[in-house]
Design brief:
homodimer, two-stranded antiparallel ribbon, 5 helices, DNA-binding, mainly alpha, about 130 residues, elongated
Chain lengths: ~130, ~130
DNA sequence: GTTGTACTTTACCTTTAGGTTAAATACAAA
DNA sequence: TTTGTATTTAACCTAAAGGTAAAGTACAAC
């Protein structure tokens, strides 16, 4: 179930470039905190905080292996993010298709659109 | 071209729930500032600021129609966001498939994985 | 039980994000 | 040219985000 709060937490977590880099790193496989910290110049506590944010956003889970805390990516939240963006984008493009048809119908009978924005189809000519 | 800065701006812009709501509203069609502000309890200057953030992140464009500034969604940035999330997710799932195969090979000859995280395939059994 | 390793927590600082109200701008209409 | 409508800019406030250093916890190994 995609609660609004879930999406919210995921987007907020991914807004930080360090956190996105961590997520990208984890996509290549599980890693410990020290391993994740290594590419960055910030302190370990800072990394620790970032991981906590990612965990609360359900973007990662943390295991335990002796004194290490290996991190693993969770895919659900990532999928929700991508689906929200795709769904929103598609909604607009479909609407645009309809508007496009409408405008051509209008143009055929000499109408005008009054949009104030210069006509510029973001995808070039509409498919279909 | 997907510059890191572009993605960064887009994710940062979408981190705010008000801004995501505005984007979702715009997916249903062009709207003026007043129209966009209407569902929210915050002041007009606050909306204006949000729109500026969205514009700088290239998530919207703004036209001009007399004293109105109709906003229109741009799809490129949204696509980049969704592609980043999908790509990252897929990278992990593909890696997981390989690990999965490896683990089963190990299991077949009596090995152990030492991961510290309880085995739990996020997608159920791996496809292929 | 002391030492080392891998973190996390606490207490703190500084910057920025999101909000406000009041004033400014841009244009239309009377 | 005054008035109204739509929106932005300016000045300001407050809370939260991201960072730090220093102390605390957990576990392994000696």
């Amino acid at each position: 179930m995609t609660t609004a709060a879930q999406l919210d937490a995921a987007f907020a977590a991914l807004a930080d470039p360090t956190r996105r880099a961590i997520v990208a790193r984890l996509a290549r496989g599980e890693a410990t905190v020290l391993e994740l910290a290594q590419p960055f110049e910030i302190s370990l506590p800072a990394i620790s905080k970032h991981l906590k944010v990612l965990e609360r956003a359900a973007l990662i889970t943390r295991g335990r292996e002796a004194q290490r805390r290996p991190c693993r990516l969770r895919t659900e939240a990532l999928r929700e993010v991508s689906e929200w963006a795709e769904h929103t984008r598609r909604a607009w493009e479909e609407r645009f298709d309809r508007l496009d048809e409408y405008l051509h119908a209008m143009q055929a009978q000499g109408g005008s659109d009054h949009s104030g924005i210069k006509e510029r189809n973001p995808r070039g000519r509409s498919k279909r």
